[in-house]
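Module 6 notes. Inverse folding takes a fixed backbone as the condition and produces residue identities as the prediction. Think of it as a translation problem where the source language is geometry and the target language is the twenty amino acids. Below is one complete input and output pair. Work through it position by position during the lab.
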């Protein structure tokens, strides 16, 4: 996909878009970092979506121009199953440190229970999305709901 396509399809400038890129979409890390660099060079903010399953080294991750890293729902369930002292928590803490060192945010998606919210808050994750925080809206409900929220603040 040429770098201009998402902006053209949305009729928005690249600077107003955050592209979520599945890390598993790339077979080798060189093509991955090259593609991310091209998209970033076109003005897009990038979010790496995955759980460390791609073949990309920490050094390559550090050189990739990402604004955020999204944790998967599967990973969050592992965090709860293993408890706050298991390997998932250690991986999360390492991921948070790596993201912070390159100026990227950690975003937890699939936050569907109060227990997950609490666990994430305990380890310092502040950006979350999921049904525990807000219900899923139908496309036509969004603008009216956002306007109501904005008016109450």
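Target side of the pair, the amino acids:
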């Amino acid at each position: 996909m040429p770098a201009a396509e998402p902006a053209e399809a949305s009729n928005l400038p690249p600077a107003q878009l955050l592209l979520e890129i599945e890390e598993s979409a790339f077979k080798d890390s060189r093509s991955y970092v090259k593609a991310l660099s091209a998209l970033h060079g076109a003005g897009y903010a990038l979010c790496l979506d995955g759980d460390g399953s791609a073949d990309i080294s920490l050094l390559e991750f550090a050189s990739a121009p990402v604004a955020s890293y999204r944790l998967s729902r599967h990973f969050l369930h592992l965090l709860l199953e293993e408890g706050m002292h298991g390997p998932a928590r250690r991986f999360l803490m390492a991921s948070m440190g790596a993201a912070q060192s390159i100026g990227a945010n950690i975003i937890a998606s699939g936050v569907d229970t109060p227990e997950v919210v609490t666990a994430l808050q305990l380890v310092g994750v502040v950006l979350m999305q999921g049904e525990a925080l807000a219900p899923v809206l139908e496309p036509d409900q969004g603008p009216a709901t956002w306007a109501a929220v904005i008016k109450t603040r």
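Reference fact for the lab report: The first strand starts at residue 18 and ends at 22.
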